[in-house]
Write a structure and sequence with these properties.
Blueprint (H helix, E strand, L loop, with lengths): L1 E10 L2 E11 L4 E5 L6 H9 L9 E3 L2 E2 L5 H5 L2 E4 L11 H6 L14 H13 L15 H14 L4 E5 L7 H18 L2 E5 L3 H7 L2 E6 L2 E6 L1 H4 L2 H8 L3 E4 L8 E4 L5 H4 L9 H4 L4
Parallel strand pairs: 3-8, 3-9, 6-7, 7-8
Antiparallel strand pairs: 1-2, 1-4, 4-5, 9-10, 11-12
């Protein structure tokens, strides 16, 4: 569905992306992870057509992305950036409805199909209770859910998300991860998302691309990519990749700057050890 074939990108003389190869097929969740400045957000912007790239480097449905006009791209790819514009005086409903822009030549006359999709997106993101409120009167987490509803109303097969859980509390972060999984499982959407929290990427990804200095350090399943060595090499920090019996996936626990023997305050010889470590 969406491919990068030897993609390079530079801001002036500074090269940001170097020979990036990426493939996203139908109904996959792909996470981009890596340190700040590794090129994750730039890669998303290139894939969305927002940044100019060399011809025949990005392919959408087996056609070079540069052969599409911007409106046609917007019918295939929805992109949610990390930072949003401030739109004062706009209601939640109006902002979500903006997702239907690619399907209109001019004016704002909503069709029955538009209204059905807008209502679905609002219900799906559980924001019906404040659909008539000014967007700027909402909390950061609430606004993020509204913006996500807007790109859902765009109704595209491919969704690009740049840090979608930004501003959300713990509960809504994990609700958002469940929403992303449901978009794949129930609607066969392809989702490519940037995550800072490695555990979020482990939780939902079919494949992970780990970026380092604009290049792909490794790609594969979460189990293949997220290792103690890769975390040490790319993020320059020690971490344990732990498997807890209660969890079906691994969990990354940074060691930080503490020595291992200083981090753990108990030992099997301690009488409280069994009680403290009996996670099943």
């Amino acid at each position: 569905m969406l491919e990068a074939r030897g993609l390079n990108f530079s801001y002036g003389k500074k090269q940001i992306l170097k020979n990036v190869q990426l493939t996203a097929d139908k109904g996959q969740i792909i996470s981009l992870i890596g340190p700040n400045g590794s090129g994750k957000s730039t890669l998303l912007r290139c894939l969305s057509g927002l940044l100019p790239v060399e011809k025949n480097k990005i392919y959408l449905f087996d056609k070079s992305l540069d052969s599409f006009n911007s409106k046609d791209i917007a019918k295939k790819i929805a992109f949610l950036p990390q930072f949003h514009e401030k739109l004062s005086g706009l209601t939640v409903y109006d902002l979500v409805a903006m997702g239907r822009m690619p399907y209109h030549r001019s004016g704002w006359v909503y069709t029955a199909k538009d209204k059905d999709i807008i209502d679905w997106a609002i219900d799906y993101m559980k924001i019906s209770e404040f659909k008539n409120r000014d967007v700027q009167m909402l909390s950061g987490g609430e606004r993020q859910r509204v913006w996500i509803a807007m790109i859902l109303a765009q109704d595209t097969p491919i969704i690009l998300l740049d840090e979608p859980v930004t501003y959300m509390d713990l509960k809504h972060q994990w609700n958002m991860l469940e929403i992303i999984k449901n978009l794949k499982n129930n609607f066969q959407k392809t989702v490519i998302s940037v995550f800072h929290d490695i555990n979020h990427a482990i939780e939902i990804s079919d494949y992970i691309y780990l970026l380092e200095n604009g290049s792909i350090y490794n790609t594969g399943t979460p189990e293949e990519v997220i290792t103690e060595k890769s975390i040490h090499d790319v993020f320059e920090i020690n971490a344990h990749v732990c498997k807890i019996n209660r969890c079906c996936k691994s969990v990354v626990v940074p060691v930080g700057f503490y020595k291992p023997q200083e981090m753990f305050s108990f030992h099997p010889s301690n009488e409280n050890y069994k009680e403290k470590t009996s996670l099943k």
